[in-house]
Design brief:
eight-stranded antiparallel β-sheet, Vanillyl-alcohol Oxidase, Chain A, domain 3, single chain, alpha+beta, 481 residues, 18 strands, five-stranded antiparallel β-sheet, 11 helices, Uridine Diphospho-n-acetylenolpyruvylglucosamine Reductase, domain 3
Amino acid sequence: MAITEETSRPAGACADAVGAALCPQPDLGEHRPRKVRATRFPDTVEEVRRQVLVARAEGTPLYPLSTGRNWGMGSRSPVVGDCTVLDLSRMDAIRTLDLDEGYAVVEPGVTQRQLSELLEGTPWMLNVTAGCADAGVVGNTLERGDGTIRARAEDLLGLEVVLGTGEILTTGGLDRHGRRSGTVAGPDLTRTFVQSNLGVVTAMAVSLIPRPEAITLIHATFARDALGAAADAMVRISRSRVPAHGMLRLKDLFVIPDEGSAAVPENADPNTITIQVPLLGTRAAVQDAERGIRDVFRQFAKPIEIRALDTATTSEDDPLYARTRFASGTPTCEALRAGLRVDTCAQADAAPVGWLMFLPVVPLHPVSLVTAVELMAIESERHGTAGMLEFNVISQHSTNMVTQIPFLREPDSIERAHVLRATARDSFLRAGFPPYRSNIDQQPWEITDRSADFQDGPLRGLKRLWDPDGIIAPGRYLAGS
C-alpha cells in the first residue's frame, strides 16, 4: 500500500485532543502555521482516485502538492488548516517522451532535473526555471511560473485530472495511455485547472523546446539611475524581437533600506541593474539578433557592460555560468542555495534566511515599470526590509514582476517582511498592478480583491459540478470554496 502517513515527525510532537496528528509544516516564508491532519503519498492515479473518494465520504479536505517546493508562498502548507496533504512526489513517471513531435507526458513528482537529463543529447530541451533543479514541472506550470525561454503556461498542452467526484478527466487531446493527438474538436478545458482547485492533476503533457544550433545569452549591466532608459530599451527590444528569442528580463534590481539588509546576498549591487535575454536559433540568426539589441542600447541606453555569452563554451568559473545553463535547458541550484545559505535544497525550509514572494503583473511600459519599482522602494524603506526585483516579459503587453523579500528568521524581521508584502499588495492593487500568483495567506481574496464588483458565480458553478463536497484545496483562489 503506497498511501501512508508521514512518519518523519518526532512522536508526540503535536496532536489534538483525540490523538490525530495535527502538525504545522516547515515553511521558508514563516506564514501563519496550518494544522495538517496527515500526509498521504499515492504513487498511481488509481490511488489518488481512491484517496479522493475516501476524503469525500469522510468530509475531509485534501490539499495536493507535487514536490512541495512552493518556497516563499507557503512551501508544503495548505491554504486552510485541518486538511490532509496529498503529496504526489512519488508519482514520478515520465509516461511518454515523444522525440518526433516534441512533448513529454509527466506525473507531478517529475522534476526539472529528471526531465532535462533525459533530454540530453536529443533534439529537444526543457524550458527550465531559475529555481531548484528538483522542483516539480507540473506544480510550477499550474502556478504560472516563468521559464528561461517562455512563460511556463505556454508549455502546457493537456492534463489528466481526478475530480472531486472521483471521476477522471483528460484535456488537450491527452488520453489515459499517455498519448496526445493534439487539441481535438470542441471546447478544451485545459486552462481551467491553472491556479484552480477544481481537481487533482495527475499527469501533464508538456511542450518541449527545439534544441537550436546556437544559444547566446545577452547580459547587459546599467547604472541604477539609468532605470528609465533601460526600461525604455527593454520595451523597444521586446516589441521588435522574433519568436526564437527567449524570455527578456529586467533583473538584479535591489531596493535596500538602511535597516533590514542583513538577509540580502553578499554579491547584491544596489547601484546596477541588468537586462538579460537568451537568443536561440541558427548561428547567423542569433548574431543578427545580437546586433539588433546592441543597436537599441546604443540609441536608447548606455550599458556599463554588455556581454554575449555562447552557452556552449562559457566556462564553469564564469559568474554567469549558471545563467547560461538555464538558457540551454539545464537547471542548477547553486544560486538558490547561496541565497538561502544552505548546502542542499532539502534544507531550504529550515534555512537561516527566510523568503517571501510578492508577484504582481505590471504592464510592459516604461512608466509602469519605473512606477512599480518606486512603489516597492517606498514600502521597503517604510518597513526596513529589502526587496529583490525582476520583471519577466511574458507578452507584448505585460510583465510578471518577481519580488523576493529576504529576512532573517527572527521575530521582528519576520513581522516586518510580512507587513511589507501586505502593504505592497495594497499599494500595487491601487496602482492597477494585481498579483498574478499568490501565497497561502492571501489566495482566498485574490480574485475578489481585483475588482470591487467581481462575481465568481460561473467559477463556483464549476466547483460545485466537479467538486460538489468542496474537498479539493479549500480556500485556494476560488472565493467561498
